[in-house]
């Protein structure tokens, strides 16, 4: 199974991430986000940040989770490449994310993400889980 | 049946979707677009005009401007005004980059004064004004200093040595919205705002050295202090992560509010709250704080532009007469008085990818420009011309004093990356005498001029329909991109 793929959106970029369960799909969505900003294969998982979020449904939780990633990227000045997500039945998410401080001599400089949008945002569950989001660039 | 079959032509380049198109519409939709492009207009954008026309308290028309394209919830290049009695405010009607805007700085320099120094000027501007993804500003704010930035905007910047007192006279809102209240702004937004103050960002934002290439209206150009051959600088940026976070915070709050207040919306991203609710009042204060952040940001860059010119050319900014022409906000919502039928009323006007274009006589226009209407700054894309227009009486009558804001994207970034090559673009621009500095090749490809609608056509439609009048065309000499 592919971890994630991108699709075209008028001005911006969309992502679909897959997983055997919702945790894995969210983790792969995190990876897809940082592969828009930089090249994740070149981000060493040195330092860890932990956070928790609670939302009212799975789609909102996806939004809040991805927004949280942008928040730590900008405020800690870090890029991330490892994501460990645990979601419980009350839409409560615990994440441990690993990465390192930005060093533009080492890391590829791609595109800034302004925000996550609700446009076509979805969490689809079949025999596997697919999550979808469009980011505003 | 396609929504396009419902469109009626009002006059050249002006179209309408009647309020009878669907029974939820509370106003008609109206848009300004070149007759030859009407077939290319995305149906999604027209549907968004209709969706906005369904919101409570919407007045007269839901408006699309010549650069309209599909946005999130509200179209980009859209204007909608709401009654204070039964209207709403929506963060989606302002956009993520609150007070994304444009500023122009003039000079008394000509090509001969900078020709030999253009490369050095460009390199130093690129160095002195941080840009690109993950760019930090050069200064470090103290934890509570961010509150002053949010509350006082460009006033804070000038007080702290960035620029001149007189600069404030020629900024929209004088660079400070009084509604702002930093105590309403989340800690997360402040944390994102602190390291990024004084940085340009990425994407379509830019800083350009330009030359005034053509004057269309001598009289107005003179009032604005512009003449052919003059070297000017244009800055296009906004409120950075701080504004994005404030928008996100309130999208979530409004997502609950519209359900609580039982407002019917056709798209989650039109989430909104009645103007008399606490949610709405809080958003307006937080949005104003983000707007102030953006004005402080552009003010700091103005200071560094002047410093760079001083350093390279060995003259003072005062001697080079580097005053500000104007500064416009093109993602914002504001309380303004407008005519609705025969009455004048205070309304909340949302401009998302739209520039205020107030005509002659309005008291919001700086005194020295009041007789001719406000300057309207329309940035082009990388390597293309930008324009100065002036606000008009027609804009006051028809579009709540608004006009287009730029070129408008037509190709997705991934398509642009496939279709264009950074080295070729750089060579093409060099052949036209335009130098480009960017933090990565990605941004050059994504922002290729071919990925955008032709800005020349956008301003022509604004001019021909009368919702702004052409004053001057400026051409880039060098471009700094994030």
Your description of this structure?
The complex is a heterodimer of chains A (137) and B (482). Chain A is α+β, with helices and mostly antiparallel strands and 137 residues long. In chain A, 25% of the residues lie in helices and 39% in strands. In chain A, a hairpin with a 4-residue loop joins strand 4 and strand 5. Chain A is globular and about 40 Å long. The two termini of chain A are 27 Å apart. Chain B is α+β, with helices and mostly antiparallel strands and 482 residues long. Chain B has a single domain, classed as Alpha-Beta Complex (tRNA-splicing ligase RtcB). Chain B contains 14 helices and 19 strands. The longest helix of chain B is centred in the middle third of the chain and has 36 residues.
The total number of structural domains of chain A is 1
Low-confidence segments of chain B, ≥5 residues, pLDDT <50?
none
- The helix/strand order of chain A is EEHEHEEEEE
Question: What characteristic shape of chain B results from the CA principal axes?
Answer: globular
């Amino acid at each position: 199974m592919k971890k994630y793929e991108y699709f075209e959106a008028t001005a911006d970029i969309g992502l679909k991430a897959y997983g055997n369960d919702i945790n894995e799909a969210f983790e792969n969505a995190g990876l897809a986000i940082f592969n828009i900003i930089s090249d994740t294969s070149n981000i060493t998982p040195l330092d860890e940040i932990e956070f928790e979020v609670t939302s009212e449904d799975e789609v909102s939780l996806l939004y809040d989770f991805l927004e949280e990633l942008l928040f730590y990227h900008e405020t800690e000045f870090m890029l991330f490449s490892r994501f460990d997500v645990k979601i419980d039945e009350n839409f409560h998410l615990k994440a441990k994310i690993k990465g390192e401080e930005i060093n533009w001599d080492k890391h590829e400089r791609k595109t800034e993400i302004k925000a996550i949008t609700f446009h076509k945002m979805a969490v689809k569950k079949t025999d596997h889980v697919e999550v979808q989001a469009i980011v505003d660039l | 049946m396609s929504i396009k079959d419902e469109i009626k032509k009002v006059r050249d380049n002006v179209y309408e979707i009647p309020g009878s198109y669907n029974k939820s519409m509370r106003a008609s939709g109206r848009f300004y677009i070149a007759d030859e492009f009407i077939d290319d207009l995305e149906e999604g954008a027209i549907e968004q005009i209709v969706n906005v026309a369904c919101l409570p308290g919407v007045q007269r028309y839901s408006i699309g401007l010549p650069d309209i394209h599909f946005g999130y919830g509200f179209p980009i290049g859209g204007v909608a005004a709401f009654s204070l009695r039964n209207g709403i405010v929506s963060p989606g009607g302002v956009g993520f980059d609150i007070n994304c805007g444009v500023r122009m700085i003039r000079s008394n320099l000509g090509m001969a004064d900078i020709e030999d120094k253009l490369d050095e000027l460009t390199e130093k501007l690129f160095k002195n004004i941080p840009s690109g993804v993950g760019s930090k500003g050069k200064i470090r704010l103290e934890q509570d200093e961010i509150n002053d930035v949010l509350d006082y905007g460009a006033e804070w910047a000038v007080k702290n040595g960035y620029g001149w007192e007189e600069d404030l006279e020629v900024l929209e809102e004088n660079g400070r919205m009084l509604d702002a209240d930093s105590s309403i702004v989340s800690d997360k937004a402040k944390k994102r705002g602190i390291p990024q103050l004084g940085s340009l960002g990425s994407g379509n934002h830019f800083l350009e050295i330009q030359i005034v290439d053509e004057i269309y209206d001598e009289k107005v150009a003179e009032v604005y202090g512009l003449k052919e051959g003059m070297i000017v600088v244009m800055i296009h940026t906004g409120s950075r992560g701080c504004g994005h976070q404030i928008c996100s915070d309130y999208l979530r709050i409004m997502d609950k509010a519209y359900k609580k207040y039982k407002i019917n919306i056709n798209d989650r991203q039109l989430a909104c709250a009645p103007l008399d609710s606490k949610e709405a009042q809080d958003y307006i204060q937080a949005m104003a704080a983000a707007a102030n952040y953006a004005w402080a940001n552009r003010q700091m860059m103005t200071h560094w532009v002047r410093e760079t010119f001083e350093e390279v050319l060995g003259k003072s900014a005062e001697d080079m007469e580097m005053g500000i022409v104007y500064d416009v906000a093109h993602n914002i919502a504001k309380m303004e008085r407008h005519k609705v039928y025969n009455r004048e009323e205070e309304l909340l006007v949302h401009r998302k990818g739209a520039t205020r274009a107030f005509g002659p006589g309005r008291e919001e226009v700086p005194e020295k420009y009041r007789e001719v209407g406000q300057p309207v700054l329309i940035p082009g894309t990388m390597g293309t011309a930008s324009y100065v227009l002036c606000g008009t009486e027609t804009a006051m009558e028809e579009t709540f004093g608004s006009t287009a804001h730029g070129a408008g994207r037509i190709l997705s970034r991934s398509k642009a990356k496939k279709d264009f090559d950074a080295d070729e673009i750089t060579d093409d621009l060099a052949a036209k005498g335009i130098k480009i500095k960017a933090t990565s090749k990605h941004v050059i490809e994504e922002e290729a001029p071919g990925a955008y609608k032709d800005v020349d056509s956008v301003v022509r439609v604004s001019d021909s329909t009368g919702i702004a009048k052409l004053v001057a065309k400026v051409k880039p000499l060098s471009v700094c991109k994030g």
